Amino acid sequence: MATEDFDTAPEPDGAGAPAPGTRRPGGRTARTRVSVLEAALAELVEHGYADTRIDRIADRAKVAATTVYRRWGTLENIVVDLADHLAVSITLGSGPTLEGDLRTVARAVVALYGNPAHRAWQCAMVSAAAASPKARRALSEVLAKRRESTAVAVTEAIARGEVPPGTDGHEVIRATVAPLYLRMYITAEPVGEAEADRAAAAAALAARAGLYVVGRAEDGTAR
Amino acid sequence: MATEDFDTAPEPDGAGAPAPGTRRPGGRTARTRVSVLEAALAELVEHGYADTRIDRIADRAKVAATTVYRRWGTLENIVVDLADHLAVSITLGSGPTLEGDLRTVARAVVALYGNPAHRAWQCAMVSAAAASPKARRALSEVLAKRRESTAVAVTEAIARGEVPPGTDGHEVIRATVAPLYLRMYITAEPVGEAEADRAAAAAALAARAGLYVVGRAEDGTAR
Q1: Residue B130 is nearest to which of A127, A143, A189, comparing CB atoms?
Q2: Cα–Cα distance for residue pair A152/A172, rounded to 1 Å
Q3: Do A65 and A152 fall within a single domain?
């Protein structure tokens, strides 16, 4: 079983990157940030990334548009900042099989997509990332961090002798989520538990066959 | 072996959607369209989707910006129109094994990503698709059309008895390209022939195990 913690509540005072000129962390500046990020999320859910406008975000947050422009500059920067604001954690229990653990991960990914706020943000983030290097680095970090907590399933499967030593946990998780991300963010095809379970089964099968025992070349591609 | 035909040459006169008010298909209007699309592609390669501006496209195409705005309205519409302009076909020979054919497909996908024009357009298209339903439908159609020509590998594998009858060709191709698309367009991680070959091997293994024998529920998800 997985617990999905999708937290859009304000962060503790002082969390997040300090804004230039901030004097009172956790004070007015921090509250403004939270208001703007919450407003941006609501606008993304309502209008989608292509039709979300900074002036409407400012209206909704009840701050001046110049405040938003001065702090973030672009909608892309707001979407990147939302990555820190939206805390997502997928907690794995210790399943008896790798396939079971991967199914938990895959179903959690599909469930997050069913959350309108998360779906709107992640679509915006994928859109921003495909268009600009800065957003790309931010999305890449978010996903790598998420993989850290789930790749442990592979470490445990190696310990049980279920998959060969040297199996790359991140690569197994990538294989599990890739067919889901393709449908969710690229081809916009329907995705449900059947797709989640199939992706998990395929990744577990390939892992057991030793396909994800990989070395790394200097350029980061697999050898 | 695959031949990749990446054709950015002007289409035959009259091809593409007729523009409102077009009187002479293949005449000035068609030539303007080609100039603008070629200019847009060059700007996308140079600046990326986030920093490509319609006025610079117009300058480069030597047409008035108002002409571009009147015909396309938004950069998104230009990127969608480029889908028709950029003809991509992956031709499969008839390999002796499904894995060999899938390897051909996967390597062709990686090779296309190595083409700066195709890469710039596809990044823009993924970005547009994640942000707006219109671009999403266009990208979905482009990829479905590409799968039509490669899914035949699965039909042949069924005929050879290599994979179970009822194996869904599109699903096998999706499984093959998904880990590559994840790296190319979402996480921006390095991708090369090793990743291509691994994706092909994993998809072929799962296909042989019968994982892609799928029925369709009414909502389009797998049963």
Answers
A1: A127
A2: 11
A3: no
Boundary-marking domain end, from A42, A59, A85: A85
CA end-to-end span of chain A: 35
Mean pLDDT per block of 10 residues along chain B (223 residues) reads: 40 42 62 93 93 96 96 94 79 83 94 92 92 89 88 94 96 97 91 96 98 70 54
| Burial of A182 from C-beta contacts in 10 A (0-12 / 13-18 / 19+) | buried
Torsion sign, CA atoms B179, B185, B188, B193: positive
Q: Which two tokens stand for residue A98?
A: 């790798």
pLDDT digits (tens, 9 = 90+) for A114-146: 999 999 999 999 999 988 888 999 899 888 888
A195:B132 CB<8 A? no
Domain coverage including residue A50 = 28-85
Return the residue matching tokens 């700066």: B116
Interface of B with A in 149-178 (CB under 8 A): 174-175, 177-178
Instruction: Check CB contact under 8 Å for A129 and B201.
Output: no
- CATH number at B126 reads 1.10.357.10
pLDDT given for residue A206 in this prediction: 98
- The 10s digit of each residue's pLDDT in B139-187 is 998 888 889 889 999 999 999 999 999 999 999 999 999 999 999 999 8
Q: What residues 103-132 of chain B have any CB closer than 8 A to a CB of chain A?
A: 123-124, 126-132
Determine, for residues A130 and B192 on separate chains, whether the beta-carbon distance falls below 8 Å. no
Residue A110 has pLDDT above 50, yes or no: yes
Of B190, B187, B179, B183, which is closest to residue A140 (Cα–Cα)? B187
